[in-house]
Give the backbone structure.
Amino acid sequence: MSLFTSFLWGLSPVIQKHLLQKFDKRSLMLFYASANIIFITMLICFFNNNLYSDIKTINTYDIFLISTYTFFTIFMANLIFLEVLKYNNSHEAAAIEGIYPFFTLLLAYLFLKEKITAFGILGVILVVLGVICISMNDTNFKLEEFIVIR
């Protein structure tokens, strides 16, 4: 399931880049949100037992966290990503966005007191190196010039 999710996330910038050629980023965000509401409504129709119990237990702090999460990760991150995607290659924009494990590792350590291991640090280093490699995937880039092969 995680691999399929990664495939869907990988498909996303390709579809978004295509749609950005026709629509403004703000219009796209409204279209996405509208479609999301429709899909969530359909989901609730089939799995509504949890919704009722969740509504009973939600408090002001939960609403604050949900609102903050929605504003920064769904609204602002998408708005910025669509702006970057519009003027850059989709694989480069997605790769740079893919550096988020570094921030997740750091924030999880600071706020959730999660343990950081050597493998976690190594993984983040490899992700950053991968992003650098993908970002250098330019048609004008020559490996010989980069390495200075003689």
User: Anything to note?
Assistant: DSSP finds eight helices and no strands in the chain. The mean pLDDT is 87.
